[in-house]
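Discussion board: Methods & Data

I've been asked by a reviewer to show the raw model output for two of the constructs in my manuscript, not just the figures. I'm not sure how much to include, so I'm pasting the format here to get opinions. Each protein appears as its amino acid sequence followed by a line of discrete structure tokens. Is this the kind of thing reviewers expect to see in a supplement, or should I convert it first? Here is construct A:
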Amino acid sequence: MNLNQATKHGIRALLVLAHRGRPLTGHQLHHELQIGHAVLQNVMNKLAHAGIVESKRGTGGGFCLAKPAARISLYDIVTALQPFRAEKPPWYKILAVVMKALDGISLEEVGK
């Protein structure tokens, strides 16, 4: 299973947010990760829409995790950022196994 660039960027951004433990602006994430502003904004918007991050406005605002890293699975991240379609056997069975495995791995575990 290959992860697309958006998914890789999303995982990296989430690991930075988990490590910092405080909101970071898009600008701060851009400098930390060296990801283009438009690409990063698209990724963060998808993660916010999926309920993985929250966006806070104003002083001290920015992006932060919407829940503890231990409660965010790789399945959550991948399904938010990467569409999968496996319509023919045996691929849908293989995809189901892979997705189940991703559901058992938390962002916290990835960051260790």
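Construct B, same format:
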Amino acid sequence: MYKLEDPRKAFTIDSKTGWLTVIDETKLDREALESIQLEISTVEMLPNVANSGRLQSGPALVTIGLLDANDNSPTFTPSNLFHFEVTVNADIGSVVGQVK
């Protein structure tokens, strides 16, 4: 049996297979976090005769690295409308315009 400790409540775990699933991707913002650490515990459901009939359990620390997605559209002020012109014979790689 698998058990998950996730204080952010971003993941859930299948108690039988240990499969992790994202349940709230809004809590996985790369701009706020580089990685997340979760603690997963396992417990044998049946006593093991090799261990005098005791149930075995153990924790594992799992680190999940977050990748950045282009989830924030750029905005410019005073407006989002810009006009640039380029000559027909401009060299490849020429600067056409610049937005700051």
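Answer (T.O., handling editor elsewhere):
This is acceptable in a supplement if you add a one-line summary per construct. For B, something like: The mean pLDDT is 85.
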